[in-house]
């Protein structure tokens, strides 16, 4: 029987690859943005945000404070990679979101499992137009070139079949026909490039449509998916030690610290009702990656959150930024 022996959660955004002074380059983009998602589901400009909230994060958005946070982020990523290396799993199941990378508006499944042999990344379009500081971001996510990672076809098919039996009508993707046009994105490339440390570990990609209406899963459905995913894994006759990874999160573009901390607290307490009650409008755009964590929470009721680290990153005085989170679930009994 296969068994989930470790679960990890990790932010994967551009800031995880950059120095603090480059974080401030991202802040410049924030100040020009007209599409910052508020927690009540509205889109506002930076100027409108300042008018509503003022600029209470002057100290937190200083280069000195951000430098300390950037160092903390790198230590947390090292700790996550250490956990994966120490566990030495036979296989990794990654729950990540597809942001129009493998799928598009012509075909965007709510939930899909890839059962192909070759997990091919999709190089970033028009990368030559990006600023120089974006190069480590693309490299760290496997989007700098064409990369092929190892899939787990037989095990992936078992998961698909089990989930169908459990009344989850998951989509099934068998190949990446043309990586120059579409391929896997940063949610999956990050795991291999930043956490695998050069090892070859088969991966099962579970792709959620968290970003794009009208068929993004609800928080309650994401938790139920996680629970069904654990059952599917444990039903496999393969003697495999499985690691499960939530890739992404937490709040994006506006750092919503209270939301992020309530999510982490509910996950630690295994409070399904609290997670299911998260308003849909609170987790739009990048904040929707919280659904990846909720899915993993549903699959790890037999484990305990051994540790977590949270960094509310406010890269502008008005509070734009991201909630960075890292965590590990283990059997500590």
Sheet/helix structural class: alpha/beta
Domain count: the total is: 1
Oligomer: single chain
> How many helical stretches?
10
List the helices and strands and how they pair.
Elements: E1 3-10, H1 20-32, E2 36-37, E3 43-44, H2 46-53, H3 63-87, E4 91-97, E5 111-114, E6 118-120, H4 135-140, E7 148-150, H5 153-165, E8 171-173, H6 186-195, E9 203-208, H7 219-235, E10 241-247, E11 252-254, H8 257-269, H9 272-276, H10 290-299, E12 304-314, E13 320-330
Parallel strand pairs: 1-10, 4-9, 4-10, 5-8
Antiparallel strand pairs: 1-13, 2-3, 5-9, 6-7, 11-13, 12-13
Helix pairs in contact: 1-3, 5-7, 7-10
Description:
50% of the residues are buried. The protein is of the alpha/beta class and 333 residues long. The chain starts with a strand and ends with a strand. The chain has a single domain, classed as Protocatechuate 4,5-dioxygenase, Chain B (3-Layer(aba) Sandwich), CATH 3.40.830.10. Strands 1, 4, 5, 8, 9, 10, 11, 12 and 13 form a nine-stranded mixed sheet that branches. Strands 2-3 form a two-stranded antiparallel sheet. The chain has helices at 20-32, 46-53, 63-87, 135-140, 153-165, 186-195, 219-235, 257-269, 272-276, 290-299, and strands spanning 3-10, 36-37, 43-44, 91-97, 111-114, 118-120, 148-150, 171-173, 203-208, 241-247, 252-254, 304-314, 320-330.
């Amino acid at each position: 029987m296969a068994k989930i022996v470790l679960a990890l959660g990790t932010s994967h955004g551009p800031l995880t690859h950059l120095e603090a002074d480059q974080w401030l380059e991202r802040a410049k983009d924030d100040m020009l943005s007209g599409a910052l998602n508020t927690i009540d589901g509205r889109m506002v400009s930076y100027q409108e945000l300042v008018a509503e909230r003022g600029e209470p994060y002057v100290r937190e958005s200083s280069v000195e404070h951000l430098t300390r946070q950037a160092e903390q982020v790198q230590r947390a990523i090292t700790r996550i990679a250490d956990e994966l290396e120490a566990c030495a799993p036979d296989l990794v199941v990654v729950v990540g979101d597809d942001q129009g990378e493998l799928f598009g508006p012509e075909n965007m499944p709510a939930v899909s499992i890839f059962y192909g042999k070759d997990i091919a990344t999709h190089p970033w379009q028009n990368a030559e137009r990006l600023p120089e500081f974006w190069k480590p971001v693309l490299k760290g996510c496997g989007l700098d070139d064409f990369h092929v990672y190892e899939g787990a076809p037989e095990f992936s098919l078992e998961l698909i079949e089990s989930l169908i039996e459990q009344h989850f009508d998951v989509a099934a993707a068998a190949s990446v026909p043309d990586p120059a046009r579409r391929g896997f994105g940063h949610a999956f490339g990050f795991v291999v490039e930043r956490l695998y440390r050069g090892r070859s570990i088969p991966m099962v990609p579970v792709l959620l449509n968290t970003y794009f209406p009208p068929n993004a899963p609800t928080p309650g459905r994401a938790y139920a998916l996680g629970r069904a995913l654990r059952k599917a894994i444990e039903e496999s006759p393969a003697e495999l030690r499985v690691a499960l990874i939530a890739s992404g999160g937490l709040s994006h573009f506006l750092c919503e610290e209270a939301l992020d901390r309530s999510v982490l607290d509910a996950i630690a307490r295994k409070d399904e009702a609290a997670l299911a009650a998260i308003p849909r409008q609170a987790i739009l755009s990048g904040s929707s990656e919280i659904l990846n964590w909720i899915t993993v929470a549903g699959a790890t009721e037999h484990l305990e959150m051994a540790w977590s680290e949270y960094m509310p990153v406010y890269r502008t005085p008005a509070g734009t930024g991201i909630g960075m989170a890292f965590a590990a679930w283990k059997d500590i009994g």
